[in-house]
Design brief:
alpha+beta; Arc Repressor Mutant, subunit A; 3 strands
C-alpha cells in the first residue's frame, strides 16, 4: 500500500487518484451500501431494508462491484439454509470516517423536499 500524501500547498485541479476514487464511489448507491455496512457484517436482506428504493438486482450488482473493488467481502456460512453476509474489508473500513464526514456535511447542508 502506498502512503502518498495530499499536498495542499501545490494542489492541482485534477488528481487521477481522486478521480478513480470518485468513479468507484460515484456508482449509483455504492456509497450508500458502504454506509450500511459501517456497523459490521450484515445480510443482503438487511442492506435491502436499509436502502429504500433500491432494487434487489441493483443491490446484487453493487455488492459484486464493491467486492471486486476490494471494499467489501462476502462470507458464506454453511448452515441450512446457507447464510451469506457482507462486511467491509480493511480498505472499505478506511473509508468509514470519510463516509461519516460526508453524512455530517449532508445533515448540515442538504435540505430534503418537504422539510421546513
Amino acid at each position: 500500500m502506498s502512503h502518498r500524501q495530499l499536498d495542499l500547498e501545490h494542489l492541482r485541479p485534477y488528481c487521477p487518484y481522486y478521480a478513480a476514487a470518485m468513479d468507484m464511489l460515484g456508482r449509483r448507491w455504492a456509497a450508500t451500501v458502504l454506509r450500511a455496512l459501517l456497523g459490521g457484517a450484515v445480510r443482503f436482506s438487511d442492506i435491502a431494508a436499509a436502502v429504500p428504493d433500491m432494487t434487489h438486482k441493483l443491490l446484487s450488482q453493487r455488492l459484486k462491484d464493491l467486492e471486486a473493488d476490494g471494499l467489501i467481502e462476502r462470507s458464506v456460512h454453511p448452515t441450512t439454509p446457507v447464510r451469506i453476509d457482507y462486511r467491509l474489508t480493511e480498505k472499505g473500513a478506511a473509508l468509514g470516517q470519510v463516509l461519516l464526514a460526508l453524512n455530517q456535511w449532508a445533515l448540515e447542508w442538504i435540505e430534503l423536499p418537504g422539510e421546513p
